[in-house]
Amino acid sequence: MTSFLAGISGLRRSGSQGSLNSLLSVMDSMTSEQHFRVCRHCMVRLQARDNQVEQRTSKPTLSLYYEKLMEYRSLLERLLPQYVQMAESLSAGETTYNLQDAEELRMKILKTGDNLNSMAQKIRNLGIGSQDVTDGAASSIPLGARQELLQRRIFSTSSGFLKEHILSLPKLPTFHELKETQERRRLEAEARLAAEKEAMRQAEERASEILRRRDKESKDSPRTTPNRSSSSNTPSRSSSSTPVSFSTSRKKQSDEVVVDTGWGPNLCPPNVTETDDPMIQQMNNLRNYIKQAREANRYDAVATLEANLKELQGEYKKQQRLMNP
Q: Where does the record place Basic and acidic residues bias (predicted)?
């Protein structure tokens, strides 16, 4: 409709009393397009109709901005739990995750938060001052009270989300702090293991001492006939109580359900070099799986795959030393 009405204003009025066919066969000398003459009132009606059709077939600017804002928010909601888990693990001195992966994830979260904040500000300022027009969007109309209230609420909700999650984002330890924490954790584990071994040794000594005393007492005291009635009743009570505890443990195990997200690597990678050695082929596959897991932000799977790769590399080195002494 727009292209159909584009050349009407450029046509010259003619005083001739032509037929209807002559009115419909007016040709534009610049574009060689066919047009027809209308009066001013008809032109206003046609333009109004053209605007209505355009508004129905295209999305408003507010709708486009809001869809983009929700994309940023859903991405943050997916990345934030992973980052918090990685930060807590690294702060505790664990070796499950890599510090570099955590730093890259933090930068991605901060960048996404900036994009969400800028989009929320665009929504708040939409229609104020100048009219905003985006590609494929209908032109803005003067704001009403309800639309202005809606834009303010969207901005306030987004600001609250950023304050709650981005500003309170836990910090990552530095490389030296991580090494110190890991060393302290290792020393504590060694001390705890030594204490457990010492406690076990003392318990064994006490148990052996008790057995020696019982043997000595049994040799010194006369033999007594055991009570058959009490011994016969004891297994029945134990047997009757055993199924209850077993069923209770089975019930507890059945109640503990672990939900997995179901992520898995592509088992047919296109860029993996095939070799005759199956162990080298498996290591190449693991490297490709690690790359896929990093791209999918599955850093828990990255840690597991890297551990498997290190174990396989160690086994391969042992095999090579045996084959080439």
A: 197-222
Q: Of 91, 24, 105, whose CA–CA distance to 299 is shortest? A: 105
Which residue, 132, 165, 198, sits at the end of a domain? Answer: 165
Q: Which two tokens stand for residue 54?
A: 């355009």
Together in a domain, 94 and 145: yes
Host domain of residue 48: 2-57
pLDDT in tens, 101-159: 899 999 999 999 999 999 999 999 987 754 444 444 444 455 678 888 999 999 999 99
Q: Are residues 112 and 37 in the same domain?
A: no
Of the residues 138, 165, 192, which one is the last residue of a structural domain?
Answer: 165
User: d(Cα 292, Cα 137) in Å, to the nearest integer?
Assistant: 37
Q: Give, to the nearest 10 degrees, the angle between helix 99-124 and helix 61-91.
A: 150
Q: Is residue 93 part of a domain?
A: yes
Contact residues for 162 (Cβ-Cβ < 8 A; gap 6+): 113, 116, 117
Contacts by 70-75 with C-beta closer than 8 Å and gap 24+? 72/112, 72/113, 72/115, 72/116, 72/119, 73/116, 73/158, 73/161, 75/112
